[in-house]
Design brief:
It is built from 10 helices and 13 strands. It is of the alpha+beta class. Strands 1-11-8-13-6-5-2-4 form an 8-stranded antiparallel β-sheet. It has a 5-stranded mixed β-sheet with strand order 3-7-12-9-10, with no helix packed on it.
């Protein structure tokens, strides 16, 4: 087999846990990614997957409530890569299907060397497999986390990031993660923000077969990259905003992940603010942009005591502490703006 540059990347650090131990509170706010080997090895669905792909599919169907799921379909020539065509339309089609039908389709192509892509992504577990999480629990320290299931044939998912903390647990098959720190975004050649495969901006670089002539800055991104291959039962923690490329390496793969927000729930979402900032500022004059850049630093990114010291604390409004009541009033104000 031809050696790949990926073989020479640093490995994502492994955090050792004693058998039966849970992650500690500090582990859920770590500043960099880490792997935990065997964190969920005792899940019944992991044990079913170790018997065979058919066994874990049967296990999941015991919980299936007939709710249709969204499935991405792509031809074999995509080699599992979910991306854009030359005209920037997506190279997969999406349609709703019964999970039993999806599993039958996967079983039919499982032995093929060149599989078509069949991929069920980011599906809320309790909406499709109620009771599954209760039989396959994980201790997240009391956090309210969104449990999602990702399953399908071999896939190649371009680098993207999430605004939330992420714990990804491999149930069946193998997953390879290549991670990049948040500040690497300038060297990842990001694609459109409003035309994306799954709602998150992705890198335009083919990470498996990079074209360094077209994307020369990607070499710099690789200077801070790290890689890990996860077996069934392994888990990967990623802090918010870390970029990650993900490969499903086996003919059938299942991953379950949990997202949770570190900031208080009253905080707004950054992505809509960026969208509106593009609309409001990007095409203004250089002088106007310079002024608003300073205003944002003053009120947002470098805000301190001097910003509001001259205003009575009880009268600072949104410039003071963001309480649930202040957040509600601010959202109402924003809704009035956008209705104009």
């Amino acid at each position: 087999m031809t050696k790949s540059y990926i073989d020479d990347l640093p490995r994502i650090p492994v955090k050792a846990l004693e058998t039966g131990a849970n992650l500690a509170e500090d582990d859920f706010s770590a500043p960099t990614p880490y792997v935990v080997r065997g964190l969920v090895r005792d899940w019944p669905m992991v044990r079913a997957g170790q018997q065979s792909p058919a066994a874990v599919r049967d296990y999941l169907l015991n919980f299936y409530n007939q709710q249709p799921v969204m499935v991405s379909h792509g031809p074999a020539e995509n080699q599992g890569r979910i991306f854009y065509k030359d005209d920037m339309s997506l190279n997969v089609t999406n349609q709703k299907s019964d999970m039993r039908q999806v599993f039958d389709q996967i079983a039919a192509v499982e032995g093929q060397a060149e599989q078509p892509c069949l991929y069920v992504a980011a599906t809320a577990i309790e909406s499709v497999f109620p009771g599954l999480q209760a039989q396959n629990p994980i201790d997240l320290g009391g956090r309210s986390a969104f449990g999602r299931i990702w399953l399908g044939t071999r896939t190649r998912i371009a680098p993207h990031n999430d605004s939330q903390s992420n714990l990804a647990c491999v149930v069946a098959g193998r997953r390879r993660f290549i991670v990049f720190p948040p500040q690497a975004f300038r060297d990842l050649y990001l694609g459109p923000t409003d035309n994306t495969p799954a709602g998150r901006t992705i890198s335009m670089v083919d990470v498996i077969n990079p074209d360094f002539e077209t994307h020369p800055r990607f070499r710099k991104a690789l200077e801070s990259a790290a890689v890990a291959e996860l077996e069934p039962g392994d888990a990967l923690y990623m802090p918010p905003l870390w970029w990650h490329h993900v490969d499903g390496l086996e003919p059938f793969n299942i991953l379950i992940n949990y997202w949770w927000r570190q900031p208080p729930s009253v905080f707004g979402l950054p992505e809509p603010a960026l969208d509106h900032a593009i609309l409001a500022f990007r095409d203004r004059s250089e002088a106007e942009r310079a002024y608003w850049r300073d205003i944002f630093d003053y009120y947002v990114f470098n805000a301190g005591e001097d910003t509001t010291a001259h205003i009575p604390e009880s009268k600072r409004g949104i410039l003071g502490k963001i309480t649930p009541d202040v957040a509600k009033k601010l959202r109402t104000k924003l809704m009035r703006y956008f209705q104009r």
